Amino acid sequence: MRVLLAILLCGMSTVALAGQPSVVYNVIDGNIDGVSDTARAWKFDEFSSYCNADKCVPFTVNASVAQWMRLVITSTTTEWRILKPGDYAVVLAGIDIQSNGNVVMVISGFLGMTNEGGDLIDMELALVPGPPGLYIPEPGEWIPITDPLPVPLPENDEHDVVQRTLWMLITVVPCDSACEYASSGEICVSLDEQKPWVDRETGGYLDGYPDPE
After folding, report:
1. Which domain holds residue 33?
2. Any idea what the Cα angle at residue 133 is, between residues 130 and 191, rounded to 5°?
3. How many CB atoms lie within 10 A of CB 165?
4. Residue 30 located in a structural domain
5. Claim to verify: residue 30 and residue 135 sit in the same structural domain
6. Which of 43, 71, 119, 179 lies deepest, with the highest CB count within 10 Å?
7. How many domains does the chain have?
8. pLDDT average per 10 residues of sequence, the chain (213 residues)
9. Is 61 inside a domain boundary?
10. CATH code, 150
11. In a shared domain, residues 28 and 126
12. Which 3 state secondary structure label does DSSP give 94?
């Protein structure tokens, strides 16, 4: 009865309300700089009091942070000019990946270069640590890509750039005719800890995903 009387005298209430979208602003060097496209926020619940007593009002702030990635691949096209048969190697690309979560890189294709007559130039790859010029593949590190090759890249505490170098080894034999050869491959990088409210194709907010409750 005393509790009820105190509430009536103070006129205090906490009302659970549905989330209301709130305008989020970018801040640059401490200055408000326009409405943000990369962060959203909702406000919930209302507290009101008409009273002569001291009050402490608790606040709750939660955040769901999406996984982001910075990806740099130094080259995506390689053109060869080969005078004579032999084994030849080249740095296919340097790969820099930076993210705030676990990443999986999958290498597929690169099955060998063929011409219109069906001649095949064998192709093998080697993925080594560091930027181009730091590490040269050893004989046992060359592999043919017969199936998609997953390469897990765990999150590091400092979120530094992870650097890899992709090498290519080709074997040109005397029976390979003098003509044009071509091949293709693909590197796909997936964010292994992405939030469900992110559209994986656009990187933006997923249309139709429900607002926080």
Report:
1. 2-49
2. 30
3. 22
4. yes
5. no
6. 119
7. 2
8. 49 66 95 95 92 92 97 97 97 97 97 93 96 94 95 93 97 94 96 97 95 89
9. no
10. 2.60.40
11. no
12. strand
Q: Does some domain include residue 122?
A: yes
Distance CA 85, CA 113 (A): 14
pTM comes to 0.84
Q: Are residues 83 and 179 in the same domain?
A: yes
* DSSP conformation letters of 64-98: -PPP-EEEEES-S------SS-EEEEEEEEEEEEE
Please name the helix (run of DSSP H) or strand (run of DSSP E) that holds residue 120, with its range, or none: strand 120-129
Pairwise CA distance, residues 163 & 142, whole Å: 18
Residue 60: how many other CB atoms lie within 10 Å: 6
60 with 48: CB under 8 angstroms?
A: no
Domain membership flag for residue 144: yes
Is 93 in the same domain as 185? yes
Quick: pLDDT tens for 20-70: 999 999 999 999 999 999 999 999 988 999 989 999 999 999 999 999 999
